Structures are given as structure tokens and as C-alpha cells.
Amino acid sequence: QVQLVESGEGLVQAGGSLRLSCAASGRTFSIYHMGWFRQAVEKEREFVAAISRSGGSTYYADSVKGRFTISRDNAKNTVYLQMNSLKPEDTAVYYCAQGSGGSLYFDRTYDAWGQGTQVTVSS
Length: 123
Fold this sequence. Notes:
Helices cover 0% and strands 51% of the residues.
């Protein structure tokens, strides 16, 4: 079955950097779009970033544009989220997701999800 496993969780000071990874297995990685979402305590899950099948197109939430970079390595079946200039408001559980159709900004597009990894940014 499909499995997405995130890694890279951590505690970092404001202004610092962190890189998340998501390793996928169970189906052909290169034919699926990949996305990152996050959910803070007592808040709804929100879109962070997404990348097309080939990696040629990327999409970002306004709140992370210019600070986060999504990338993928189809040979390694892995998607990454490089997070720079982190802010306390970036604190959340981050989820990677895999989907094949529809708008990449919406979680209903994705049919496979990881278990999540915690990112905590201290002020």
C-alpha cells in the first residue's frame, strides 16, 4: 500500500532553518503531484507548498513564499521542504501528501498522507 514517511522534525530558533523530507513507497512516485500541509494547535490544516509530477512547477502559500522551497527527487521517491527564516507562527505538524488531479492547493486533491512531523520555532 501507499506509504509516506516524513522526517526532519525539530526545534529551531526564529530565523533558523530546517529541512523536511518525505519518502514515498507503494506506487509510482513520478506520476503524482506532491504537497506539504501543516496544522497548528487548534487551527485547521492549511496548504504550504506543492510540486508537480516533474518538478517543473511549484506552488506556495503566501505566508511561506520566499522562505520555503519545495523540491523532489523522483529517483529517490522523495519530496523535500526547505524552510528558511522560520517564524514562531510556522510552528505546526507538517504533513506530506500525494495526489493526481485537481487543484494542488486543496487537501481534497490528495489521496495519501503521511503521519506528520512536528516543527517548533521558538521566539
